[in-house]
Design brief:
four-stranded antiparallel β-sheet; disordered C terminus; 446 residues; Immunoglobulin-like; mainly beta; 2 domains; 3 helices
């Protein structure tokens, strides 16, 4: 029997953990400036020059430094891929910074694996980049352009998503509408900045999205007032930057994903205006079951094409176990791939499931391990799981399924098995779930 409800819940829970902040550390740049002030007059002059460079940035006159380097060389056939040839647009939308100086901007990057990435930063001479302030680029006060191939690392951590994100970039499958926010972004636009020790006045909130050609404008609430901003023609792109509030939690974000013309407002938006069928209409945030909309010009209900799961296949699995001190320490599973994987919308996922011990109504839990690269039809694919665990009272068995997801809609079970621990051994008990990190990640089903 397939377990799609558990699969969907697990994906959504993993997605909420997707944008979790890194461990905290004190900004090296700020500590370094503090030490300079206590040294010789010559070094003190260097500190003054650094402050002057930052002041120049506020006036819009700023020197250019070395370009931003990608975090690592990506693989065009794995993860989100790399920027496709000619896949990076120019800057599609700009907006002023609350403090003045260089404006913010956003561009669209299409990747080799069918992802569309929205990349934000500061803008100078038509280029997107990072300012050398607040610890970025050793506080050199310069503007550092971001090359088109400077996409973030693909941090799947063994789970499949159709979206990834960091403080200044968001990637979703081609053709998806996106409405999101990043709360507490460093004014440098450095995606690697640790904002835990940054003064609130140096942080920004970014509202961004890509709503498609039907979108006309977005409305948001800020400082107890309603603001409406037109989106870019043809793309529906928008970018809004405003002050960070000390009452907010820095390093926080979320998104709504959907289809063009159908997406309801995501985080921080209160209304999206579309032009559908030649007339203007509005979409408000999704209502709870039974609630009634009071919009004067509501948009038509989204059209969701019905989809039925494909019948399960029963392909053979090769399974091997390793033990250490009466505990299963390793699990290897492989099979011959019946379908090719050619983009990020397709993937094979290993699900390890068990009944949760003591849970009411037969609750089920488990873990996901996914393959996030291109796969040839007929290729043997495999998973290696260290220290597999079970949440069930029966620690001697583990149920597994392999799901193939062709893109939109539900996946398809292509293989399943019940794995028994060797005599005298057992699977480890699953750790107690912890509260997710502060970052949120919301999917819209519209």
């Amino acid at each position: 029997m397939s377990v799609f409800p558990e699969f969907e819940r697990a994906l959504h829970e993993a997605a909420r953990r997707r944008l979790s902040p890194d461990g905290q550390r004190v900004r090296a740049g700020r500590l370094r400036l503090g030490r300079i002030r206590r040294r010789s007059p010559a070094l003190a002059m260097l500190a003054v020059l650094g402050v002057c460079a930052i002041a120049l940035a506020a006036t819009g006159v700023i020197l250019t430094g070395a370009p931003v380097r990608p975090e690592e060389l990506l693989n065009p056939n794995a993860g989100i891929g790399v920027s496709a040839l000619g896949g990076a647009s120019g800057i599609v939308v700009t907006t002023p910074d609350p403090e003045g100086g260089l404006p913010w901007g956003m561009r669209i990057v299409h990747t080799t694996r069918g992802e569309t990435c929205l990349q934000t930063g500061r803008v100078q001479d038509g280029q997107l980049g990072v300012l050398g302030v607040d610890g970025a680029f050793a506080n050199d006060g310069r503007f550092h352009p971001i090359p088109a191939n400077a996409l973030p690392r693909d941090v799947y951590h063994g789970s499949v998503f159709d979206q990834i994100g960091s403080e200044t970039i968001s990637c979703a499958l081609e053709g998806k509408a996106v409405a999101g926010e990043h709360v507490g972004v460093d004014r440098s636009a450095d995606p690697n900045a640790n904002v835990s020790h940054t003064p609130p006045t140096d942080l920004r909130d970014l509202l961004y999205g890509l709503l498609g050609p039907q979108a006309v404008s977005v409305t948001y609430e800020f400082k107890r007032a309603s603001h409406t901003v037109d989106v870019a023609a043809t793309t529906g792109a928008y970018l809004i930057v405003h002050d960070f509030s000390p009452q907010e939690q820095a390093g926080y974000g979320g998104e709504a994903l959907g289809t063009f013309g159908d997406l309801a407002p995501g985080p921080a938006l209160s209304l999206i205006t579309y032009r559908i069928g030649g007339r203007l209409c509005n979409r408000a945030p999704s209502l709870p079951p039974g609630a009634v909309s009071h919009l004067a010009k509501p948009c038509p209900s989204p059209h969701i094409a019905p989809s039925a799961p494909e019948p399960a296949l029963h392909l053979p699995l090769q399974v091997s176990l390793a033990t250490r001190a009466q505990t299963v320490s390793g699990l290897s599973i492989s099979l011959i791939a019946p379908f090719a994987v050619t983009s990020a919308s397709q993937h094979y996922t290993l699900m390890m499931l068990s009944q949760i011990c003591g849970a009411p109504h037969g609750g089920r839990g488990g873990a996901l391990e996914s393959i996030d690269r291109d796969v040839l039809r007929g290729e043997r694919i495999s998973w290696r799981v260290d220290d597999p665990s079970t949440s069930g009272c029966d620690r001697h068995t583990l149920n597994v399924e392999v799901i193939y997801s062709p893109g939109e809609g539900l996946g398809r079970t292509i293989a399943s098995a019940t794995i028994h621990a060797p005599p005298g051994a057992s699977f480890a008990a699953a750790p107690t779930p912890r509260t997710p990190y502060a970052r949120r990640h919301r999917h819209s089903l519209e």
